[in-house]
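Anyone? Bumping this.
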Amino acid sequence: MLEIKNLKASINSKQILKGLNLTIKPGEVHAIMGPNGSGKSTLANVLSGKNGYEVSGELNFKGESLNDIPVEVRAQKGLFLAFQYPLEIPGVNTNNFLKTSLNSVRKARGEKELDTLAFLKMVKEKTSELGIDEKMLSRQLNVGFSGGEKKKNEILQMKILDPYFSILDETDSGLDIDALKTVAKGVNSSRSKEKSFLVITHYQRLLNYIKPDFVHVLSDGKIIKTGCGDLAEELEKTGYKKLN
Amino acid sequence: MEKFEINFKQIDQIKKITLEEKNFRIKNLELFNTAGFPSKKFEDWKFTDFRKIIDNNFDKLDTKKVTSDFKKTELIKNFDHNYIILVNGNLHSYNFDHEEKSKIKISSYDNNINYELSENPLICLNHALAENGYSLEVDKNYKFNKTLVIYNFFTNEIKDKILNSKNKIKVKENSEIHIIEYTINESKYKFINNVYEDLVLEKNSKLKNLYIQSKRSEGFFHKYLKSKLSENSDYVNLIFSSGLRFNKLDIECDLIGKNCSCNILSALYLNKNEHQEIKTRINHLVPDCKSYQRVKKVLDSESKGIFQGKVYVKDEAQKTNAYQLSKALLLHEDAEFNSKPELEIYADDVKCSHGSTSGSIDEDSLHYLMTRGLNRKESTNLLIKGFLNDVVEFIKSPKIKEFVENKLEEQVNGHK
């Protein structure tokens, strides 16, 4: 699904990622943990194609190189990023946005665009599946949303766009236990042989609900340790310091 | 262009005028000929060197009356409406089939005397030469069933012309009307349209006035709008008119009756060499009135947007509530936004606020939208729409709102 080889990235001449290697196969869930400033969010941004980074190394997604592929095309190819801090977009209705977004992805995939009726039917299914209040969608995109609502909205977008590969960038931070369960439910119900996930988190808490196949520790721009689910529990007890 | 002066003979050609009117016109023509077109030296023209704009765009100009051979063009089909058709500023025809006709008076405008002298040379020019325009009066206790669309057509005959016209709209006690002024410019040529407009809102009346443009054009527009708001009256002016080479709206509003409310809102997108200015002066002359101004401009390539907004509160105008905000979204490094908010307050128990901001498109917001599959242009357009949206939300009728949204979308997408 995703192959990262010797990935280096810097911003404003400061190197953040210093030769990162990671391979994620279809159907796998990987978790990346690591202390503040280790490069977790940079990794998410670089994978999404965000401007402003100087990037070298190889990024392959479903057998194709992602280098030089613009942000929206990555999204259309089935790569999704759930933001750590979803942006507030004033004046843009959430429902209209979701529809525009879905249809641009469908169009790029050569699928028929959904009309309003079909779209609303689909949204209804997804919101009730996740236990999200539909009223949220008639509001402006993320404007005045609580932290939990924003994160739930990210997961809803993930469900609607139905990507092959999703990155969850600290989606658990600032969430109460109910919202956390919604997020986990969103991921778990999407897990399949074809779908993969990269869960970036500070805490082991989320991993109680989303059981990863692999846990990696990112430190100073590199993966320094890889293990199974129990590595997260170990880290929770010992902290990151011992690893260095 | 050499110094532009108008021969007094032109006033002799205006038919059926009294000596008093003739003298008033001559006086104004003298004022105009002395001042010339306004340059930056005029305080009210600080950000707009109209003289230079004229020099750069016209080799000659002529103020002679135009006759036009007007063929009817298609009207708006999106919603039922009454209409008035103006051709090059002249009242051409009208239709009030949705209304009780006895409640409406409409005629060509002919009163051209009872005006104060102005320091604005373009108003002087208008006072000197205006012969065209319309006068509309809505009788007491009458609420319009449908919107009135004023089609403002310009034809090809007006190359290098200055058109001067005067309009008046009077809404009598307890009456209500919604007007859309829809400018359709079929002229390929440059011309100047110079309008003086009077609005009178009597007690408990409501007037909602929306300005919009059909497409991009080579017109240079100046409009001075003078309104008087009586007790409990409610005035809303929504300005979406973009796509003009030059457009200055000079709005002066006297709040003369308690509890009246004046709302000036604008949302538009300017591109290329378009120059647009909204200048307002809201005079709070009595207590308990409200004024609300919200002006939003999206400025692309070499366009220029200006907002000069003044709120004046007289000493006796206690409990005034005045709000003013202007915001610009700059899409290009050569775009320019000038804002001059002013408050002049002589009363001590008032609530007045003003603010002005400008900025460019937020890259993080763009990135967010692009990760959802929209390309850069689609994402930018969505952010622009969002930026202008809070003004569009003031339109209550869904059909008219849709019509305006489509026009705004054309401004953003198609006007390039």
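Late reply, but here is one note on the structure posted above: The interface with chain A takes residues 362-365, 367-376, 378-379, 382-383, 385-390 of chain B (CB under 8 Å).
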